[in-house]
Amino acid sequence: MPMSAFPESGVWLKGNFHSHTTLSDGSLSPEEQIRRYTVQGYDFLAITDHNAMYDRLEWNEGIVMLPAWERDISYVEKVKCTHIIGLFGSWTPSNSEFKRPKGDKEIMDDQMLIDEMRGDGNVFISIAHPAWSRMEPEELLALERYDAIEVFNTGVECLCHEGHAEYLWDYLLRRGKRVLGVACDDTHGHTVKDDHFGGWVMVKAQACDRRSIVEAMVGGHFYSSSGPTIHDWGIDDAGNAYLTTSLCREVHYITYPARGKSFTGYLTETRYELKGGEAYIRAECVDFAGNRAWTNPIYLT
Ligand SMILES: [Zn+2]
Ligand SMILES: [Zn+2]
Hints:
The protein is an alpha+beta fold. The protein contains six helices and 18 strands. The radius of gyration is 19 Å and the shape is globular.
């Protein structure tokens, strides 16, 4: 039996879990933000205003809202800052407002912030826009207890072409750090090019509800995209990695320490013969508009 990276049963759900509103530095009201993502056909959305988590179940009309926030530390003496997205699981505060002051570099460092977010009940934690934040690879490697890094961030890509973090992701994976990669919008509405609908995750969840979506995220049952659809991804009976997608012009298999392989053409199904000894394999595909999708890694050792 081929081994798919995705569960056999479940529903595919499209979502963005990084967006801002007028509750912090975004340009749209929460109501307008929710309306836009709903009209665009998204199944779930998280509003992640800076250092403030609001539960928006009361606006849950046709879209599942995930309680979430973006916590940050600004390091005044350096260009570096740290922004971290946290998704809550089943926890629903009775008080609709949950705020924390900004992390103070005098009393808090990156690991303390992650630990505090875990303590607050965040069940999925991702490091936001690490390239834009000026986080060094070794800093990401040293941090513990986070689930993912943003492999693509639309807002930062629109702002200054620093939305990609594939190099940092592979740096971590090569050293045995098992982190997921996520794409998101980080919608603010301030950039010249609109930062809506440029990066999302497709989650295979058991049901279209908050708990199932968050469980699927934590389990890595998703891929990230800025365009292409990934139908399946896994290892076949013959020991080949396989990827089936919407029509793409490029498919790339990225492995370590053996080198992977790139395919070009009119592609919907590709296979890559594993050499043996690969620590991990992941895949990216690019459609004819130049948009990309990213699988999560499969670990082989
Ligand atoms: Zn941020
Ligand atoms: Zn943000």
